[in-house]
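User: Here's a protein and a ligand (adenosine-5'-diphosphate). What would the complex look like?
Assistant: Let me lay out the input and then the predicted complex.
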Amino acid sequence: MFVSTLDTTIEFLKGVGPKRAELFQKELGIFTYADLLNFYPFRYIDRTRFYKINELDPELPYVQILGRITSKEQIGEKHKKRLVARLTDDTGSIELVWFQSLKWVDENVVKGKVYIVFGKPTVFNGSFSISHPELENYPRPATITGNLMLQPVYHSTEKLKKFFLDSKGIQKLQTSLIEQHLKEITETVPPYILEKYQMVGRKEALLNIHFPKDVKALKAAERRLKFEELFFIQLQLLHNKQLREMRFKGHLFDVVGEKVNTFYKEILPFELTGAQKRVIKEIRLDTQRGIQMNRLVQGDVGSGKTAVALMSMLLANDNGYQACMMAPTEILARQHYQSIVDLLKDRLVKVAILTGSSTKKQRTQLHKELEAGEIDILVGTHALIEDKVVFKNLGLVVIDEQHRFGVEQRAKLWRKNVVPPHILVMTATPIPRTLAMTLYGDLDVSVIDELPVGRKPIETRHLYEGQRLRMFGFMKEEIKKGRQVYIVYPLIKESEKLDLLHLEAGIEQLSYQFPLPDYQISIVHGKMTNADKQYEMQRFIDHKTQIMVATTVIEVGVNVPNASVMVIENAERFGLSQLHQLRGRVGRGAEQSFCILMSGNKLSADGKLRLETMVKTNNGFEISEIDLQLRGPGDISGTQQSGVLELKLADLAKDQLILQEARSTVIETLSEDPNLENPQNSLLRTYLAKRSRGIAFDKIS
Ligand code: ADP
Ligand code: MG
């Protein structure tokens, strides 16, 4: 195979050598010339602007001054020696000071010469000075990397700096790399696509990302490189999807039989919303195409995903297949199981549950029934995907709360059958479109964007600590009306001890405000055993307690329609999507529900925006967009294993348009030329061939 010079180990680049090469590898993951080229500046310093000396201000960051060295002298004794030079322009003069490398500086800074001086001005003894400024000859010599008007700034580390690989040192290496090897940079995106979107070639882009000719050239370079990043992610995702669809036949669910019909006509206690019907129709279409369905259903809390899941499972049953539903925690699994059993009441199908706490005896029995095909619907935790669990004929897997299941776990499910089951992934955490396209770009996405009719929007208030008594008063009123209340405290690993103290203090205050025997309180937190949690939760569900104090989101994943108030303590410490999830625990019954966000008086700008957003809107998708803007994708669940975080330039919050272009280009390309046989797509073919060697798709099947 052709090996590019750019694959040469970085050690051999002039000025690197073995020691620095080792550091580059360890500190920045740079192994080859190409890696260094792909190590982009994280910002640029504007060097188009020259400051006059009388314009200097201690508030200014780095500045650039053009002036003449009018004096130069070494002063001080031995260890305190320094070199002081005076730089003068037509508005005044300023001191330049060096404490190190005096000999070198003395030889290279020439009295009477004009220099471009660059540094951070500070005030010392009432006048301005710059210590350790950078000096450049004036006029700047013309090189291939141009007269740098925007100076690149690279990330570096303490260790690298010790070996002179600070930003400036890295810039030097980039310069020589580009000067010597620009010619060898090859195109990765087919030229017809570049033309279509009027994007610059790879050479020009890389040159300008490191050494922008001007702002316009930098923007063009950024756009091209962002496109490239997103384009290849989409190509990979959509190509995988296409392969999967070509290779795997899917079970045919072409009968809508007695089970679905009876459920719909006689059992379902409400009319489905338009959105629910639409999503069920999409699932129907998927499962009649003869390909394996991989569909993500996004729906806000309370949008009625369970009904959609159950209808789909019954559809599988009607066609002679088993179905299973997997939840991220035991509590949620139990709850799903319970609500299905409550609805079906032993009619139509046999439903069973399997979790980590199922006994050995239960398991043995269950395994037998499952293999014999006697169980139609199995609900459980990830215990479901253990190899011991064998289905007779698994046709559909519903995964609730996708983000907790990795790609690997999904793949494991596919292996459960010769023909892999259809997969329906449900998530109650709405994620922004751009993130969905990247995280779940190989899935089809349905959205339940409508709440059941008659549901009253939850009213949200933000109260400060000083208004706590008002909050207690309100709780009392609601409890008097027969309602129940959740109070959620943050419990974060880093501050766990302190958080637990707050929790205790909170509970003490609460038991003073809400004394026995009139008020009963359930307490559930992460440090308790499953059995204890279960017991406390059950008391709340059975309305034996009126108040549920809890710490984490998932522990309150219960459905208690009678609960009408959600109080969130230290609300400013929760992320937006968490707050939204928590709020979704109320508003499940017919009554008007409330969410009270308690916070201290001091709020950060972000914290304030989060609480304001919560008060302003109930729409999970809107909230998720703001969350992405505030936090970036890094903190949004599911992104960790997805590669989204390895994006060098593209920003899913800001580059929606580019992502859209990249994705639609890939869709178009693959539909016109599915096997990428057209010579104009040869670059893409090569890319995928290289990639697929590492993660052979067959492994998944
Ligand atoms: P989620 O999407 O959060 O999982 P659920 O499926 O738990 O929502 O539904 C929330 C509540 O709304 C449940 O009590 C459910 O019975 C009810 N529900 C679901 N769909 C409808 C509908 N179309 N009309 C009325 N109530 C509905
Ligand atoms: Mg649900």
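Summary: Residues 438 and 644 are 7 Å apart (CA to CA).
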